[in-house]
Amino acid sequence: MIPTPDLSHIKKQDYDRVYEPAEDTFLLLDALEEDEKLIQSLKPRICLEIGSGSGCVTTLLAKIVGDSNALFLTTDINSFACETTRQTGLQNKITRIEPINTSLVNGILPRLKNRVDILCFNPPYAVTPHEEVGSFGIEASWAGGIDGREVIDELLPYVKDILSPQGLFYLLLIEENKPKEIVEIMKNQYGMNAMIIMQRRAGREKQFIVKIHH
What we know:
Elements: H1 23-34, H2 36-42, E1 46-50, H3 56-65, E2 71-76, H4 79-91, E3 97-101, E4 116-121, H5 150-155, H6 159-162, E5 163-174, H7 179-188, E6 193-202, E7 205-213
Parallel strand pairs: 1-2, 1-4, 2-3, 4-5
Antiparallel strand pairs: 5-7, 6-7
Helix pairs in contact: 1-3
Family: Belongs to the eukaryotic/archaeal PrmC-related family.
InterPro entries: Euk-Arch_PrmC-MTase, PrmC-related, SAM-dependent_MTases_sf
GO biological process, one term: methylation
């Protein structure tokens, strides 16, 4: 059992500017912990979290990977989230987190083409009007547009180019995002393996983890 990262350095008012870890975050943490031995067996060299928010997920992933020369990259469109991610790593004695202030994987490709061993994304999945998508503040952490899928669908075509041959992608979704449809898209359009590996109800929301690989 790996302890949840210490977030005591994040002040209450900071959560007005960065996404506060909630049930979706903890489901993603549980999926990573469930695959602890598998992840360790891959000996990851490069890990990437898209939309890192507080940095909680990458910090736990770094603890799972353990002492190695692995590099932990994160991206977030919110510059405050990038700094919070860095501080969360330091608070938990993880010094190898490199936050990048960018949208999705802008600036990552082609440099890291097929080099990312572990990819994580807890996307903005809430169903919202299209106009709310793409802000640079806290709204960017939840506004997913039509079916909550606009940001998710923007990333899917890049997954096959991001993941290394043995790489694993952990994607969090809710029922409104049509996770089974995403599984079929990854299989039929992109020739990837995809499956729902975990699901949980959180209040009115039903949340899923989809694992995708070559």
